[in-house]
Every structure is written in C-alpha cells, then in structure tokens.
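In this section we walk through a basic example: taking a raw amino acid sequence and producing a predicted 3D structure, encoded as discrete structure tokens. The instruction is simple. Fold the sequence below.
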Amino acid sequence: MTIVQRPAGRFVDALTMLVVCGLSLLLLVYVAYGEAQRHFLQFQLEKLQSQGRVVQSAIERYLRPGSLPLRQFVGFSNLAEPIVDSDPAVAGINVFDERDRLVFSAGKKLRLLPAEDGGIKGVREGSEYFQAVLPLRNRFESVGSLAISMPRKLALERVDRAFEPLLTLAGGLSVAFALFVTAAGPRLAGRRLPWLQIAYAMTFLVMTGFVVGTLVSLYSEGAQAKVKALADTLVQRIGDIVHYDIDFAEISGLDRTFAEYRKLNPEMSAAGLSIDGVVAIHTDPNAIGRPWVGDRRSYEYSFDIVSPASQRKVTVAVALPFDIVYRQVLRSVKNFAALFVASAFLAGIFLQLASSLQRSVAVRRNAAGGKARRSEEDLALGFVKPVFFVAVFMEHLTYAFLPQFMHQAATASGYSPAAASVPFMAYYLVFALSLIPAGHFVQRYGTRPLMCGGLLLSGGGLALLALPLDFSVLVLARALSGIGQGVLFISIQSYILTMALPGRKTQGAAIIVWGFQGGMISGMAIGSLLVSYITPSGVFSLAGLIALAMAAYSAGLVPPAPRQEEVLGRVGASLRRLGHDLTQVLRDVEFLRTMLLVGVPAKAVMTGIVIFALPLLLADLGFAQEDIGQILMVYAFGVLLASTFVSRLVDRTGNTDSVLFRGSVLSGIGLVLAGAVGWDATPGEGDGVVETILLVAGVFVVGAAHGFINAPVVTRIADSELAARIGAGAATAAYRFLERIGHVAGPVLVGQLFLLFGQSAIVVAWIGLAVLVFGLLFLVRPAPSTVATQRRPLL
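The resulting token sequence is shown next.
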C-alpha cells in the first residue's frame, strides 16, 4: 500500500487502519465472547444436571414399581436442601407432577419454564433463570419432572467480567497498529516483504493469544466448579456414615453407588473414597487397597469428611480429565483460524479501498496523458473491487445453514422435503435468464445504476427471508436474489471491460475470480459463526443491511463508466444472436461431449452437492453450524489452489483434455470419499474422527477437481474448430450459458434422489461414481479430433 506522507494523508491512513483493524479484532472478541458464553454456560448447566441426577435417581428408585404416587415420596428435603445450601448457583430445586403442578421444592419455588426447540438438551431458558429439567419415570411412563434452576445473571456475569479487559486490549492494539503503519509506512514502502500484511497478522495473533488465554481460564474454572459440585454431591450421600462413625465394611452396595454415580456422569474419569490414605472404594477396581494417587491429567477435587465421633480420615475425590477443557479450547481456536482467514480477505479489500481513496485525490490534482489514463483505470478498478467481493460475501453468509432453513420451511408449509431444492433451482434459473437482459440494460443505462439495482434486489431477497413467510414466498425471495446477483455480475463485468486498458483486460477479469472465491470463503466462515449467536433471521437482516450500504457506496464512490452507444441493440436481437449461436454449437459433437460429460456435471456437483446437499447431511450427522461453514470453506480453498497450478500447466502444455479428464476423475473420487461416511462399514463409527477426515478430504478433492475444470474447459471451447468457425466469443458465451443447466439441475436432481433413496451420504457416493463414468466416457472419441489441443497425448 502506498503511504502518503502529507499530514492529511497520514491522518487518513491512521484512521483507515484503526477502523479496519478495530473491526477485525472486535469481530474476534465478539465471536470469542459467544463461544465463551456458550461453553462456560454449558459447564454450568451440565453441573446443574449432574446435581439434579442425584435427586432424580433417588426418586425414580421409589417410583420404579409403578404403583406408588409421586406425592408420597419421603426424603426430598434431605436430598435437595444440602445441594441448594452448598452451591450459591442453585436457586431452587422443584418437582412437578405430570400436569406441571408443584409437588416438592427446596430453595425458591419457581414455575416450570416452557420447553423450546434447540439449545442444550434438557435445559430450558427464561428471562431470569436457566432450568435443567430431568424427567421422573416409573416402569411404565413419565409421572413428572425435576427442575433445578440457576439465575441467568449469575451464569453469565463471570464471562462479562473476563471479557471487559479484552475490549480495552482490542482498542489498544488497533491504535498501535494504526500508529505503526502511519509512522513506519514511509520507511517501509517499496520493500519486498509484505510488511503491512505481516503487521496485521501479528496484531491479530497477539489478540488471539489473549483471547485463548481467557477462554482457557474460563473453561478451567467451569470444569473445576463442575468437579467440585460432583464431589460435594457425593459427600452429601455418604456424610452420615462418617458422622455416625459407621464402619464402611458394614454398608453394602457403596461400590455400586460410586459406579452408578459415574454412569450418571460419564464425563468423570474417576471417583473414589479413601480411609486414612488407602483407597477403599473406587470406580477403577485395580486402585482399591492402594494409596491414593492423584492424576496429573485431570482436575481433581477431594473433600475430607470430618466428624468428632470418628478418628478416621475419610476423603472423597472426583476427577475430571483436562481433555474436556482442551477440546473446547481447540474448537474455539479452529473457529478463530477460520475467522482470521475471513478477516484477512476483508481487511485486504478495505486496505486497497483506502489506497484508492488516497490516490483519487492525486488523480484529481494531476493532469493528463497516458499516466493519467492509467491512474484513472487503477482508481476505478480499486473502487469496484469491494462491490463484487461484498456482493458474493453477503450471499454466502447464508450458505452454511440455508438448505436446513429451506428444508424446515418446506416441511412446515406442508410440502415434501424434496421441495427444499426448489429455492436453489429458482435462484440459479433466474440468475441465468437475467444475464442477457442485464447486458442490454447495461448498454442502455450504464453500469452504475445496475450495480445499485442488483445490490438492492439481492439484499432485498435475503432480507425477506428474515420474515415469517410461506414457503412459496421464500422461493420468490430467492428468485429475487438470483436476479439481483445476475444483474450485478453483468454490470461488474461490463464495468471492468470498459474501464480496463486494452493490455490489462485479464488483470481486470481477475477481480471477478478473486472476488468470488474470497467472498465465498469469508462469507461462509463469518456467517456460520454468527448464526449461532444472532439466529438465521439476524444473518438475513445483516445481509440486507450490507447490501443497502454497498448500494449507497456504489452510487456515491464508484466512478461512472462511459456509455458504449455504438453497441446498443434490443433484447430481441441479443436473444436471436444467442439462438443462432446455440443452433451452431448444439450441432457440434465435441462441444456437446465437453459440456455434457465435464462442464455440466461439475456445475451440478457444485450446486447440488456442495451448496445444497452437504449442509443437510452434515447437520444430520450432528456437525455444528460453524463446522459446516468451515468444511464448505475447504471446497473454495481447493478451487483456489488448483486453479493457480492448473492455469500455468495449461498455458505451458496446451493439453486441456488431460486436465479435464483428471478433474472429472478427481471429482468422482472426492464425492465417493465424502459419501463414504454414510456407509455402514466405515471404520471408527462413533468417535466421528474418521468421518470428519473423510468429509474434509472429499470436499477438498472436489474443490481441487473443479479447479482443474473451471478455466481449462473454457480454454478448450475457445481453441476448438467450432470457435474458429463462429468466433471464440460466441462459442464461449454459448457454453457459459448452457453450462448453467448444471447449476439449475443440480439441486433438483439431488433433492429427488434424496426423496427416492433417503437423505443419506450414500447418494453422494453414487453420484461420484456417475461422475467417474462421465470422465471415462470423455476419453472416448467418436470422431476425428475437432479440437486443436487433442493432437497432444492424453496422459
């Protein structure tokens, strides 16, 4: 980035860096705060459930025969009151009958909160309290419920206190980054090292280190509170034995009590009782009779039970493994890594925008000639980059949860689950159909009005999804977004081709490639994290607001592009030209072979499998929303990495057939890998590790395969004899239009397969085998080669 040394320019630099860095760090803190609230609260609520299971177990032993009424249970106070007295986080323990009428209470008498979908299983949330609700059953049926309540304020205020210093730190680091760039920029400008990016990354990593340290402290505190509560509850159950100095050998069944307690709390690694330092009871039979030895890999809480009537030293100990905390922290770090990548893309875009704002002043001051034309071009392209990036970003904010959202909306409106594919089909269909009219309107009215209109249409369609609408209206909303994205795509493409100098058209077109992949990665990462905190409606509303802001930006800051009046024509003429070109290309066997065996299947896999089916399947497998978004990110990374390598390979060898064949084969292999998670014989079933590895590997391979196909397939069409006859532009334009058959057909085809064979990953594997067969058929040449590049060896 060029740093202007004038005081005013330096102030603009400092302010820009402060805003960009500050927003990135605040987003990190916000996501971390949501993670902390969710997981620390989960520790607290699991502690409540563990305490409640002790009371539940005693009551259900009484109820088990099936003939005794709940109201006649004796001993509730002796069980519940010690828990309330020993733990300030417990506001009250209440028992309700099958009609939710209060039967017993200890502590505050609180009503039973209504059940809601989502959240932690068995936990209900109110405006003032959280309740862990456990059913009470006899041999035949449920006869009531037990609710143990915790004040909401008490549960969350600890997280608030821990994160207050992080807000101050985020502000301080943002100011330090801005001052560093302003002070050191003039000295470091022109260096080979990307010092600005390195400084930004270091600032983000420092903030991440403090955030992770805070999370470790919170999670450790939550785990220790949980293990203490477990030990206290166990002590209460055997305290009378010590108090009355009864010999433990005379009490039968204590070993079963400890074993049952661990069964009720499976996260415990051990629980035991020692007398004078020697283990008398332990969940691990091999430890009995030996001196008590603590486990350094666990949080251990021991409690000495003291009684004046007894000279024995009786100790109860409970252990909880460190892994519980480490797993939560590693999960958060994974989310931060995805957020870092997304923030890097966003920061890069807005740092370039800041540079364009500064250069705009210089361009207006300086004058004429080729340098001025070059500066104006750079300035225009710099201003338009954020428009396309943000348009893709706001659309992909929803992709980690949009299929599940549409699936629920379709079933709630009484439609078949397969109808969930209709909004996706509608989006891609109207996207394709809007391209030709959009091109005509761009020529007639200019690019900037259509940029603004496309953003408003796309954002309006997303904002409508936040409303409680019928499924048919949701389909229309997606169609509206599809029109907006199609119009926006054509207006951006036309703007770039108009403003870029003749020798720099390819560099201008790279804005679309980079903007799409970067916006896709950033949108999926951030959207999948935000949906857990602000719900799908919040994400849809946010996307609508972003569209509105970008429409205002496009109208106010994007320089207008000159009109090209000489190419004006009517929509009917454009359609007739397209119809003529389609007539020519559909008669060409090689064109059809390339399109039907390579191009269309690749697009169908992208929309039908990656965008539509995978989120549904991952949700069914129990993956969290952020995991779904991050797995979809892997696809985009695969496309980016493979495209960079393959483009150089094709330019060097000119052998597109070999590349396309390998892409088809890799796509099939990746789909088979991802679909293997639905196979009953998949090893490691139950732990989820093998399934996750197969999914991530499969999705990455599919992304890399599409990197082998996306650009080379267009090159193959452009180098064909058909292109020599009708023109490369006409041939590639016809191909680009026809390949969208795959976009439209993909979700519909997969939706129907799910309806016929069930919503299973095995369907994905079978589609992968079909793609492999298409790749092999692509090797078959029914006639002499009509494509120049086919004279080269295939492999």
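Looking at the output, two observations stand out. Residues 456 and 548 are 6 Å apart (CA to CA). Confidence is low (pLDDT under 50) at residues 1-5, 681-686, 785-795. In the next section we compare this with other chains.
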